[in-house]
Amino acid sequence: MTTERIAPPLTGGEREMLRAFLDYHRATLALKCDGLTDEQLRLKSSPPSTLSLLGLVRHMAEVERAWFRRVINKEDIPWVWSPEGDFQVAYDATDSSRAEAFEAWQAEVEHARRIEREAQSLDVTGYFDRWGEDVSLRLVMLHLIHEYARHNGHADFLRESIDGVVGA
To answer: Which of 10, 23, 32, 42 has its CA 20 to 30 A from that of 152?
Structure first.
């Protein structure tokens, strides 16, 4: 598996920039997982944490699903791994495989891209029940960029601890 990561443009409109930065961070997470076995992808950071690279992929599938499909698109669909809607459950990838996690994540990314493309503007809103507030597509995209950036930092440390590979 070889991931292509395209650098975001240095100039452009707001939506184009948000889309490009989000895709850049999605590709970064995939890059961190390139070339590793299922066993390596399941290696945990440090007890008692269940955090692993595969767990991060699963978690981001839940995050993409929650924000784009459940909030912005108002789909009444279950969570991928947690019937209770607990984002943390996805971190435990003990019995997971690359195929399972990446298939779910890539499917959610494609749904998210479609929802974003079809939205009339970044001002489209959805209701986020945990906050009890309406949120805009703009906020959702910014939140996901933030979420990926945080977790890509975790992925940096996880990958380095597995095989010494460092860098973006």
So the answer is: 10
- Beta-strand ranges (E) seen in the chain are 125-128, 133-136
Q: What is the distance of C-alpha 38 from the center of its chain?
A: 19
- Token pair of 136, please? 């805009």
Could you tell me if 62 and 79 are in contact, meaning their C-beta atoms sit under 8 angstroms apart? yes
**125-160 tens-digit pLDDT:** 999 998 999 999 999 999 999 999 999 999 999 999
CB-side neighbour CA atoms (13 Å) of 131? 11
Packing angle between helix 14-33 and helix 53-64, nearest 10 degrees? 150
Residue ranges of E strands in 1-159: 125-128, 133-136
Examine the pLDDT at 48 and tell me if it is beyond 70. Answer: yes
Nearest CA-CA partner of 144 in 102, 98, 109: 109
- The contacts of residue 117 (CB under 8 Å, 6+ apart) are none
